[in-house]
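> example.struct
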């Protein structure tokens, strides 16, 4: 097992996936629904492309609902991205929102990126 800090430092991303039909180490993962296979692979391809230049920023991806994709960034930002449409653009919006310097550093927040062109931030003050 790998703890969350070590995983993030190595650029590993926790994946939460829809129902899996077949899973064997070293083999291609098979999903119970063929549509899930296409959707998940498309989403993970976008995330992988983004992560190449932003290693460690995204640390969790949940694709159990293709219309309500959620992620976590920098360990403290909960991201709601909606569906897979314009995912690359939504990831760039997320990056711009987090790196803009306008967020209160270190304060957990929920960032809604489901509408292209506008990101809303809600601080998770407890």
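> example.seq
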């Amino acid at each position: 097992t790998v703890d969350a800090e070590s995983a993030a430092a190595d650029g590993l991303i926790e994946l939460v996936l829809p129902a899996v039909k077949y899973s064997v180490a070293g083999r291609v993962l098979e999903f119970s629904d063929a549509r899930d296979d296409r959707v998940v692979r498309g989403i993970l391809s976008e995330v992988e492309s983004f992560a190449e230049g932003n290693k460690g920023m995204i640390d969790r991806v949940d694709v159990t609902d293709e219309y309500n994709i959620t992620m976590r960034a920098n360990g403290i930002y909960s991201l709601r991205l909606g569906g897979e449409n314009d995912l690359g653009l939504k990831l760039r919006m997320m990056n711009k929102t987090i790196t803009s310097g306008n967020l209160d550093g270190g304060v957990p927040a929920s960032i809604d990126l489901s509408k292209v062109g506008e990101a809303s931030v809600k601080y998770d003050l407890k």
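> remarks
Strands lie at 14-16, 20-22, 30-31, 58-62, 69-73, 77-82, 109-112, 120-123.
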